[in-house]
Predict the structure.
Amino acid sequence: MDETEILRRLELLRIEHRDLDAAIEALASANAPDQLQIARLKKRKLRLRDEISMLEDRLIPDIIA
């Protein structure tokens, strides 16, 4: 995966991460929030955050001290 592909993937993941934020907030503010669905969305959000971090690390070159 080259740098432009990584940047494109990062942008898509960040958009999905923000969308999950909105979905979680909407579910939580409902009269009878579905806690199981909220938990699943939060887990998905954490997996996205991990993938985003991994891709960001690939963009930063290793510096030998």
